[in-house]
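Quiz preparation item.
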């Protein structure tokens, strides 16, 4: 079953590569619980089929980096980029795309959370395994307020401009 507007996002574990060690966060991959991350916050989440892929790198992620201040001005606490890649890949992609302080690069390495959402994309026949569909969601205190799922091969409704108009 696919998650829909009004549903609470399932709990799960996402990992993030932490560049600078701080209290409670060690250098390298750190695991976070979705329920803890969303509690009391407004999250603009977008998911991509894969880090370093053409549309994701040229349009999807850069749009959210560019619109980060505008989204935060509209009450968004955090912007998340979620992909079925490991935390090391997401960290490297974030460094390349200069996301620090703007977009959290969260890994769902085994697609477990993505499957819980019902938004997985089977690309096994294309040699890419199970990935995430391309989508965006506005999550307020753990509840989906907006959900924009792209048609296969499209990039029309999950962009930063659409999310900005919905926040």
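Solution:
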């Amino acid at each position: 079953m696919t998650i829909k507007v009004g549903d609470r996002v399932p709990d799960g574990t996402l990992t993030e590569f932490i560049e600078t060690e701080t209290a409670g966060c060690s250098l390298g991959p750190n695991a976070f619980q979705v329920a803890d991350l969303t509690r009391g916050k407004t999250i603009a989440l977008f998911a991509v089929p894969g880090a370093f892929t053409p549309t994701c790198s040229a349009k999807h992620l850069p749009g959210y980096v560019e619109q980060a201040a505008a989204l935060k001005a509209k009450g968004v606490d955090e912007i998340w980029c979620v992909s079925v890649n490991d935390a090391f890949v997401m960290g490297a992609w974030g460094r390349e795309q200069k996301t620090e302080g703007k977009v959290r690069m969260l890994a769902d390495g085994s697609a477990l959370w993505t499957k819980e959402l019902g938004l997985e994309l089977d690309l096994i026949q294309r040699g890419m395994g199970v990935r995430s569909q391309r989508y965006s969601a506005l999550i307020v205190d753990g509840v989906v307020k907006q959900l924009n799922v792209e048609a296969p091969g499209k990039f029309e409704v999950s962009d930063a401009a659409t999310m900005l108009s919905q926040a």
